[in-house]
């Protein structure tokens, strides 16, 4: 097992290499010219050309790649083409809001969705089941921004309980952090609650017809314990997968919520960088997210063996 | 400590005001840098950092720096700093380039005196170095101004009324300015970029809110104090909001326009260009773009309405809502063969979304075959630079906006460059417009200038160098606690007071 | 033979069932599964419930527990009273409080009845946590005690194991421990010892007897093993087709069975006396196992857990058309050997020659052509049938793989079902709709359908009632005669071993301790363990088929 | 007591009249769901003939009109008829949603089965999936559109590629548990080949979570399409889709919520029906959940 973990952590290296090459090529395939964004509308073709030269965008692809990889191997992610800021600094500024909100979202989602899903499976085809289903359908099909706007309308504008926008680091003032992070987290959580609740329900339904559930009942174990201790753990593997991939997705930033609640997270950073073709930032962001994914997935995979001891690697 | 939080029209990313013409960077530069000369609300150049004297032959300009000017690092501003800054600016700005063509010498005579000698008179000299857009000559320390003009600067020391707080800068998210305590304002009352820049605030924070409704909500709850632009469709949300005022600060606004590609059929044929002009009407475009007539005006003048050179020769059909029949006749005459015209539609720039959609429909109405291709702005920016055939990665039409001060003179309007491949995208090859511009340079009085401008207007619309589609302005919104804002095309933060 | 001769005339009634009827949903249009069951168990009494597989024994016990599958079966009539309380009128909460504390049940199929993702120790501890105020340490101690009481070796390791890491018999003992730990008033045991070797079985039976003596526990014991009945029953009930056909004190029932069905049942009990030896084989062995070793790896997140050496140096040969019996202690590695021979797990060392080829090291693809020649009936019939597949689909899977046309395969399947005594409509039903014994018959039919050269049968008949068992054994014998199938027969039941095996090997702790012709090994055991095994065979002094005691000395 | 036919029984009668096989015993929910879904698809397909106006015809001077006789749902920010747009919007939306869901589930399922079953494949495939997961679909979409031009295929691909690894993970997770079941060993012993074991024994176990994931992808693809088209990397914003109608309505959320409400309602109804049908199908696949029918 220990060897497995080590192998998996080492696997980050080839994964990042593949991603690096892929992203590098992909970026160079997309049209767009960071020089143009820097120079603004009035620039003449000659000026653009000079800026491009200056930024090394006119070098042959392999030279650009080697330069970038060389710097990367020394831990240097480069400098933003647009703002001239160090990419590491930029990401450092922007990643914490995303991580904090992702964590809060996942905690809320799991805390709400799993019990809901369990309940729905337990009362299969009852009104609880249908209520969970309807809620999930809304969660799936209503655009995130609508949910966000509605929350703001209700909690900030009408009731005046919470601020409309912004972000305060929890390390600075936890109360302020919560009051600002709770709405974005709830907004994101609606989708995840929907998804996780449905997944929990589906998975629980399979498990509840198993013999060992009957055994647990024969032991006189309280129904709640039967559901949560016996059934849920057996149903956990797909649920964990959804939670894990969902968390990974959240960590890479959710642009819509970041916009609606004006959170300076990496989702916006990535999209802004893509729209500005700020190559070093895009490349760094994608490398970072894939590294995160590899690690989150490792955690998920290890959690499988915890939930289901029959799974071996 | 008073902090004013403002939501600007976009996020600040590029910090070098010479390398880019982006408005947000120019606005930023007005915070932290100062200028020698500035145009006031009557389009008159006024002294700012420097007074000037012009020799009688109109060839020598002597600028004398005001006393007590300091950079944010405490060093005094010297003539050498100014010369270096002017040189860097002139290597980028089109107006600056013209002046440099006529420049004999530009030197620092002593610490406070700059002597600029020309080889021939250039009546628009002060207008050009005093202009407020797109690239005004900001004064930086000489060590910074020595950076080549195609390399971005990394030292943000200025001598303006605010200091840039570098530690708190998050590109594209927020930027913080602190009052520069040692700044010595002029005594005159402020007027546009001229006059005294008296700062009453301790800090100004610009935040970028990509979601317009969030900004509106934040303004309503008092989390922010000021919004530079309010989308017209969202105005009803602020209408009944207590403590918030919506008003227009910029008297001129912007001009929206279409540009055709002269290099490739069908728009290499002037009749088909004219057909395109006739197909379009300003009202439909503006109504879709802005919604509320209070914030747009039909304007056929290429130099903008409300400017000294205003003239609307040739724009009758545009103002009358288009003339599809006339357009069709022209197409017929030119023998348009139905080749689809590639119309580029930027989808991520909100002030450019409506024009292509409305125009596509109008062009189709007049008998054009239109292939409207949606793309993000970056793709558009790359593609518009391509001189390939439209079917092969090139293009036929796209739309853009300029602030009126960026097009209000033939000397600065990029749309009136007729030098073929080195002209602005679209590449008109038009010696006549170049000749007209030279005539304009030589005009010494406003009347003479207006006369030449009228001919330029007529020529431009006849050749369809571009299609002006009217003028619009976004209102701003502020909390009523904010007072003393001066009206100007560039939003400035001096003179503002904030009540607690 | 000494039968128990308890007198319960004055003992208070613990369980009373009157006119119990259990039915499928009305929409099915089928007759009730149980009809008019009347049953009474008094304090300290052991009632053995025997009868045909599928006759409703498990359903009866589930009905008592109130655990019938919700959508499929329901009590539609009658009364179930526990010490006077009508169970059917209790609220779910009251019923819950009663389970495990006052009525406990040992389920028939231990693999599916244990939660696969919880350590078995925790599963037992949970009963205590739910019903007693004991603290953690006391609970741990009690768990260890009860595991020792059911004679599990290496209690520490077992308590820490997950069900899939235990042998069939070990799991069954976990179930037993779970049911006994609170010393209930009424214990329902649904074939609790089918997966146990006779020595362990004997210990378990005496454990239950002890409990009974101490607390006056009433026991409802469902079994197929008439030997066990003879050993432990006070009263015997015989069921068939959902009806109780006969109910009598054990003495009377074994001596003078009233009903024809009971007589038939008893006549089918195989004798412990080995059958006459068949002529020595002349052909070379079809299966040769040489020095087979299997070690289950430790694992553990950071620290390596100790390993289990489940098989060590197992060596044997089987000639074509012969039957090899493997008997031995539960957990001695019998199933492990079987799974190695099948190459379902990788042997750690050794050779397995099937028709001359060593298959121990073959790849998945390399194995494929050999698969059809060797088939297995798993110890755990339910899990080995895909719950989403109809029986018909499972039965035809193998033949279809080797090119039999579908119609032909279906025809065969139907025949086989008839052979193993299942109705034809079983083809369209799903495994969960069958009783334990029925599932086992399906599994046998599936293996036989392949007409293999070698059939490995892991406890293939232990869940069958003796009459069906006899049919199935006849079926196997017949196949062997006709097709020359070689059978490796793993069993706990020495009677069965005695009747069908040519050779027998005896395993203990992963090693073969004795090996030889069945007659020799069973009649004159050399190894002390073998001797203990035979000593422990239940009812070995009774001649069931003739309703009388055996002449002394005949069995040993 | 009551001789008026109940709607429920009328519906069941109608279904019976359609003579669905008897095995397909629907509850009322799934039956209604099927009906709604069929209705939506029908209306969407026929929309060019049903729609009262040209969904692309603008009228800049008649923007944002409230509901009226001429425009039953009012007009949007370009003065286009909302009803016509919502009706036709289903065409592209459903196509993209269904295609994205079908493609990602199909490919993800296949890869996931293999990865879950073979240890070696697992290590390699899952690392590739980890990398694919990190590519933002926006970037992918821009690149694809640059390569192939704007097309529905590009959009579906851009949405599908980052989605596949998530499906793979899910399928693999289920297979990892299921492959340890003795019935899989039994199938191996019976000589069943890998494809058979994967597709017939293991795949049914993945159905329940896949139905959930699939409907989620369907819905999110429809919404993502709008985001892509607003970044110029999707289908033209001229062509109405439920996604871009809602996205265009974003600004008017508080002023004219109908712009979001109607397409949102259509989308929700679709997702709800698909979910109900999916559940019914799943129950049918799992004999243990099915009530025993004669
Ligand atoms: N869930 C179910 N759905 C439908 N029929 C069932 C179900 N469970 C059991 N049955 C049927 O009920 C009858 C009685 O089954 P039961 O399990 O009680 O048999 P049994 O006497 O315990 O048999 P065995 O000795 O083989 O375990 C059988 O015919 C079986 O097919
Ligand atoms: N997957 C596994 N991991 C670890 N240990 C195992 C595993 N499977 C079996 N064992 C251990 O190996 C030993 C032999 O098990 P096996 O199943 O072969 O016994 P058996 O002879 O078939 O017993 P029974 O008659 O009870 O079925 C037991 O001690 C068991 O706990
Ligand atoms: Mg049974
Ligand atoms: Mg075994």
TrEMBL record, chain A:
Places the protein is found: Cell membrane
Keyword Lipid metabolism in record: no
Pfam families: BPD_transp_1, BPD_transp_1_N
Major place of residence: membrane
Keywords: Cell membrane, Membrane, Transmembrane, Transmembrane helix, Transport
Presence of keyword tRNA-binding: no
Domain ABC transmembrane type-1: 95-300
Transmembrane segments: 9-27, 99-122, 134-162, 174-195, 235-261, 281-307
Family listed: Belongs to the binding-protein-dependent transport system permease family.
Protein name per UniProt: ABC transporter permease
Upper classification of the organism: Bacteria, Pseudomonadati, Pseudomonadota, Alphaproteobacteria, Rhodobacterales
From TrEMBL, chain C:
PROSITE patterns in alphabetical order: ABC_TRANSPORTER_1, ABC_TRANSPORTER_2
Membrane topology: Peripheral membrane protein
GO molecular function, a single term: ATP binding
Keywords: ATP-binding, Cell membrane, Membrane, Nucleotide-binding, Transport
Compartment(s): Cell inner membrane
Presence of keyword Chaperone: no
Family designation: Belongs to the ABC transporter superfamily.
NCBIfam families: PRK10419.1, PRK11308.1
Protein name in UniProt: ABC transporter ATP-binding protein
Source species of the chain: Plastorhodobacter daqingensis
Organism taxonomic ancestry: Bacteria, Pseudomonadati, Pseudomonadota, Alphaproteobacteria, Rhodobacterales
UniProtKB/TrEMBL annotation, chain D:
Gene3D superfamilies referenced in this protein's UniProt entry, alphabetically: MetI-like
Domain of life the protein comes from: Bacteria
Transmembrane segments: 26-51, 92-118, 138-162, 211-233, 259-278
Keywords: Cell membrane, Membrane, Transmembrane, Transmembrane helix, Transport
Main localisation: membrane
Any Pfam family hit: BPD_transp_1
Membrane topology: Multi-pass membrane protein
Name of the protein in question: ABC transporter permease
Organism whose genome encodes this protein: Plastorhodobacter daqingensis
